[in-house]
Amino acid sequence: MAGASDKARFYLEQSVPELQELIRKKLFTTEEVRSIAKKRSTFEHKLNARGSTASDYARYAVYEMNLDSLRRKRSRRLGVKATSYAGQRRIFFVLDRATRKFHGDTDLWLQYLTFARQQKANKKVTQIITTMLRLHPTSPELWVYAAAYAMEERGDITEARSYMQRGLRFCSHSKDLWIEYLKLEMIHIAKILARRHILGLDVTFSERHQVSDADLTTGDVIPLSSTPMEQDMDLDDNRIHSTGFTSVEKKLASTPALNGAIPIAIVDSAMKKFFGDAAFGAHIFGIVAEFSQLPCARRILQHIVNTLLTTAPTSPPTLDCLIRESVVGLVATSPEFPGALMTVLDRFDSTVQNLGSLDKAQDSTRTCASVSRHMITWILPYLATSGLDSDIRRVLKSMVQTAANYCLSDTSVELSSTKAETITLLEGLNACGFKDLVQSGLVSALKVWPDEPGLLALQASGLQQPDCVQ
Predict the structure, then answer these.
(1) Which of 33, 171, 220, 353 could make a disulfide contact with 140, Cβ separation 3.0–4.6 Å?
(2) What is the pLDDT of residue 421?
């Protein structure tokens, strides 16, 4: 078996033609090439000796990447045509040796993938992903990486779904993987709807044929003429105008890819896997809420709330989702907001009444305080909305004050809050000018945590004048 020095010399001899080319094309001086050879010799002897580590390979790869970047810059500046194959091949060779020896180090695999993607070596990326997942089938982050690559770089939703579903077979316990799968489907729906809007497919048949010349010049919509199928079938205009959409358009709009059936199926499977975990369900609710502008988002949110009410009806995360659901995605200045706000008020009042009927007073206080604290958290940004109607502002302010009575009392702070949650809540109230609420909250909090620096700093800094509350 060859020794470490023999292996190092063998690998160094393979790079001699490359170094000679650098001198011949005057990209590097003789002294610089000698320094490169010496540096490579140091790395190779270290890698081929006993006790080499993954970080040694990573440093060697970074050195070669920097060297190749310098060679490219000098080639452009001097106008010298030089092939980049040798440098790329050498970096791939170093990283391949690293992942073969330390196949359990995921950071090396990700470094390998990052470089391959930068070089746009798509075939190499596919090979690396296949090998990596075969060696690390229980690493959720790697399945997510593979699905993201398939979706973002290749635009292949089928392949991305395949990675996610295969990953869930091995990592069904990973909540992050379920969340990422749900995000993938929501992003896919958003992309489809965006394309439909660009192509003008999100309007009715009659609206499509009433596009004015001014609309055509905006460039926002590409109007499509009647399809050959519509012309050949001699469609009844009265039937089309009475329904607004053709049968093809109706069928397309009702597909699982657009009506939220696939995300709902993911939610059901995830909730079943984690036995109706309310905190996890609330996390899923928050993810879907980020896509509230999608037509199917409301249906998915309602399904999540119904599922949570079935599995954990009195859990704070469930009640928080129930109260908040009607205003998700609405702007405080929109016409729909007042009606949705009334729904929030009704649900909050009924929640407080139902919790008051529980047998255990401590559980009732703890749950009510948690729900109230979360409600204040998402109400405060609405109060900062410019141009907000004065009546709505008054109602929101009253809601904050009512909720604060439940979550900032002495008993509530002691039973249900952590230091971080209390400080964050008080800082948010202070920023919006609820001076009296902050003062009473500080009194209650300091009784529980008298030496907490965050509370003492807030007390010493003085309270701000009303800002978002007028």
Answers:
(1) 171
(2) 86
And the tokens for 124?
A: 């190499």
**Cβ(442)–Cβ(454) under 8 Å?**
no
Q: How does residue 84 score in pLDDT terms, banded at 50, 70 and 90?
A: low
26-63 residue pLDDT tens: 889 999 999 999 999 999 999 988 888 999 999 999 99
Q: Where are the alpha helices (DSSP H) in 334-434?
A: 337-356, 361-383, 390-407, 410-416, 419-431
Distance linking the first and last C-alpha atoms of the chain: 82
Give which of 16, 19, 26, 36 is closest to 75, Cα–Cα.
26
DSSP 103: T
Whether 297 and 327 have beta carbons less than 8 Å apart is answered as no
Residues 6 or more apart from 459 whose CB is under 8 A from it?
Answer: 442, 446
CA pair distance 435, 432, nearest whole angstrom: 9
What count of residues does the chain have?
A: 470
Reduced to 3 DSSP states, what percent helix, strand and coil does the chain have, rounded to the nearest 5? 75, 0, 25
pLDDT digits (tens, 9 = 90+) for 237-270: 444 444 445 555 566 666 777 888 999 999 999 9
Tell me the pTM.
0.81
Average pLDDT for the chain: 85
- The DSSP secondary-structure symbol of 420 reads H
The amino acid occupying position 264 is I
Does residue 375 contact residue 348 with C-beta atoms inside 8 Å? yes
| 14 contact partners, CB below 8 Å, separation of at least 6 | none
Nearest partner of 404 among 353, 363, 438, judged by Cα: 438
